[in-house]
Amino acid sequence: MKVAVVGVGLIGGSIGLAARQRLGAHVVGWDPSAGALEAAVARGAIVEACASLVDAVGDADFAFVAAPVHVLAGVVSEVLAVAGPQCVVTDVGSVKRAVAGAVSNPRFIGGHPLAGAETAGVEHARADLFTDATWYLTPTPNTEGSAFERLHRLITRIGAWPTAVEPETHDVIMASVSHLPHVLANVLVAQAARVLGEERLPATGPSFRDVTRVAGANSVVWGGIYAANADALVAAIDDLVARLSHARDMLAAGDAAGIAEWNDGARDDRRRLLEAGLAGGEVHELRVLVPNRPGIVAEIALALGRETIDIVDMGLYPSSGSHGTVALWIRGAVVAQQAERLVRELGLEVVRA
Amino acid sequence: MKVAVVGVGLIGGSIGLAARQRLGAHVVGWDPSAGALEAAVARGAIVEACASLVDAVGDADFAFVAAPVHVLAGVVSEVLAVAGPQCVVTDVGSVKRAVAGAVSNPRFIGGHPLAGAETAGVEHARADLFTDATWYLTPTPNTEGSAFERLHRLITRIGAWPTAVEPETHDVIMASVSHLPHVLANVLVAQAARVLGEERLPATGPSFRDVTRVAGANSVVWGGIYAANADALVAAIDDLVARLSHARDMLAAGDAAGIAEWNDGARDDRRRLLEAGLAGGEVHELRVLVPNRPGIVAEIALALGRETIDIVDMGLYPSSGSHGTVALWIRGAVVAQQAERLVRELGLEVVRA
């Protein structure tokens, strides 16, 4: 298996390391920076630094585009133009609507691993960066089922949890759980640094360090993310300000009961969010009889993704007739039952293996 | 040395463990909950569960009051009423104005270690909870110099960094770097849990988990903190909302240059905040000739604390005449020079050892 990494920074380099160490893949790389390519080879993230994009992706089985969000659609299109017909192309951008709107190719599936580190650059790449991380995928009705299956399996095998989602939903979620925390971190360090003028810098406790860890992330990368998701982020800020104002008014009024109820609610919300990421149990197999038509795999994946059901693994078994079979492995008996119900609601027949 | 811990939870228990393991102190405890006392003995945080407050503090050298903020002033007063004349009394509350306003005793010094954990209760107490943590102390002009010196040394020996600060300044700092992050964590989990209705809980990335780690902290403890520091917290929220609105308007206007400048500023602010906590270098000794009058030690400690200068260790050498000597150990040549200048500005004579 040949994997091409287009853009060898922290994320691209970690994909290369994981594909080499976990799958024994032949990993090659391309990057506009010769220095980054050299560092990637030195790090062992790629075994070959390619002189051109076509050298990297022409005969690759997978191409991962890890470029800044503001140039993503252009680079993905260039990769698709020179990739062979066997090549599944994906990206790792933090915003998905722009690339999804610009690229419509059955072999392209947008992606976004929820992983990162304080330190950028391929010299900090790690094979385990994606272990147990959610990896969003944005298949569309136009997506080739076998391309989705192959990418899904690859991501599972490097240790992450693929979850299908619509690009619009993805961007709203990210505005709230990633981009807004970055904005807040920036605002909080600015406030703390100036709270007592320039003379005294306050000692900072653990909660402050947690909240501000991502302050002042790389301006090129994050400028692009903020711009690409500005509308969703503005809406998230407006909602946050309204919620802050509510808490502020309770504090100003000395409303102890209201504060306690609000705080208890936050505890419950946090527990629900954590539990959603911690579903466990045995893996169950569902076999779904599907018509041989485009988009059916994306439709199933998105239906389960909407209910936060992770597909541990999947397999496509096309037949020569009008129908084929999709096997889905789902963790936990209750979740598997829920998945079965959702698939039936799509009008499909399910067999429990 | 006998140390009494009044209130044996996570913080009180960790003080007990640290005093036993690092100083070989005889540590006793009192708590309104018999179950908590039992657990504290089982954990090894105290060696003796006292039946009454006077049993615990009557002949103690130090009493640490670790009670919720809303009952703090009352408990500290009770402890001072039954503690012997040799006993230095302090507390660990997260808000300092209320207790400083209610208690005026030369042997009481307010305190607040910037340490904590996600998990409350003495069963999670650790001897190293305070290692390298800032430990705020709020001496007043009324504070007995030798009481401050003894407490300062004790806290240094359990591994923390004592820093003197006025109660008002402490509460403004905490509103910004601790209480506001807690409010934000609450608001963010509520937003994320509801961003897509009840049907889909979004997967959350590392930045979101960092920001929301403290969401829904114990309502009894935090209700008291919010109430005691409501005015400073309301001001911090108002400032935050103004800063958020500024960022929001730049995003909505697509002001890429403004966003980049703002983001770079946050990076610089974060670096300054981190560097302030990482001063290094050799320890230098300053000897200060001081008049034998009350409040002089607090005055020196506060003057250095205002400039974020940590006193690594201190020693008091009273003489029978009108003057004595205070020895200060300061880390780093430049910082020691700055400290010398500040002490001279108080009208005091300094000798470099």
| Sheet/helix structural class of chain A | alpha/beta
Q: Regarding quaternary structure, how should these chains be classified?
A: homodimer
If classified by CATH, what would the architecture of the largest domain in chain A be? Answer: 3-Layer(aba) Sandwich
**Basic shape of chain A:** globular
Number of helices of chain A: 13
Instruction: Report the radius of gyration of chain A as a whole number of Å.
Output: 22 Å
Kindly report the CATH topology of the largest domain in chain A.
Rossmann fold
Helical content of chain A (DSSP H or I, runs of 4+): 40-55%
Strand tally of chain A is 13
Distance from N terminus to C terminus of chain A (CA atoms, Å) equals: 30 Å
- Largest Cβ-defined interface: A-B, 88 and 89 residues
Count of domain modules of chain A: 3
Annotated CATH homologous superfamily of the largest domain in chain A: NAD(P)-binding Rossmann-like Domain
Quick one: biggest sheet of chain A? 8 strands, mixed
Q: For the residues shown, what is the average pLDDT of chain A?
A: 88
Protein name (chains A, B): Prephenate dehydrogenase
EC number (chains A, B): 1.3.1.12
Pfam family, one (chains A, B): PDH_C
Keywords (chains A, B): Amino-acid biosynthesis, Aromatic amino acid biosynthesis, NAD, Oxidoreductase, Tyrosine biosynthesis
